[in-house]
Amino acid sequence: MGERYYSFNQYLRSIFKERVHRISIDAGFSCPNIDGTKSSRGCIYCNNRAFSRYSFTNLDIRTQIMQSAKFYQNKMGVRKFIAYFQVFSSSYADVDTLKRTYDIIREFPFFVGLFISTRPDCIDEEKMKMIAEYRKEYLVWIEYGLQTTHNHILELINRNHTYEDFLKALELTKKYKIDVGVHMIIGLPTQSYEDIMIDAERLSRLNIDGVKFHLLHVLKDTELEMWFREGRIKLLTPDEYVKIICDFLERIPSHFVILRLISTADRNYLIAPLWMNRKNEIIEKIKKELENRNSYQGYLYESSNCSYK
Predict the structure, then answer these.
(1) Is this prediction's pTM over 0.70?
(2) 1 belongs to a structural domain
(3) Least packed by Cβ within 10 Å: which of 70, 130, 260, 262?
(4) Which helix (H) or strand (E) holds 236?
């Protein structure tokens, strides 16, 4: 058989008939979980400097766009791009500020998509109406940081939102016919294998469009670093991660776009596990494991014995 999971690249090529690349943009937004609105502590694992090329460099949005586009145009011959507002909570501002920020992409004709990464508690009806207008010109997705469907784990990692908050945000987003991606962390403190499979089964029932996987890892200057130093957490091995991802894929519908199989982080900030930055190797292991099982995304979901549809 061909692809054993529905990759993001496959999805984009089905729409645009050529390679499309995301340009990650740091628009200078903050987060209610660090500015004191909900907490000043932040999520225990969060250090956004490890994920953005432009965080804390004071580069304006247009410069970020031009530098990234030039790089991918010259290196890979990419002609079309998605504007990916990724850093912190990229809908955490008033509507006028958000519109002025998102409108910058209209200055660049190579953009074909608008992706917004945010928290489920940073969206409301007014914002959704404004974002939905971009659907006339662009492929629009909102990517929600859910991380887990288990409220006791969300509380432990100091997310300061609930699974029910996500469900409300999902309902509102779908009211405006916007595609939804869900960001899930694998390997959270106290999270069992059974917890993760319940996550997969719950997501399989929802009207979502894609899933992005994120391996729990330890970054400098985070609360999780202290937990790691104290021996309070156990990180996954490559083999454990590969098995979990394959098991997760088997339990979700085949039409869910897999936005990412594994995360990476800036090695200047990454403490552990160092193996996570061997991204291509891990992806190949996932593909090989599915092949060895003669399995694929949706295998168990499609089974007549599936009990959680």
Answers:
(1) yes
(2) no
(3) 70
(4) none
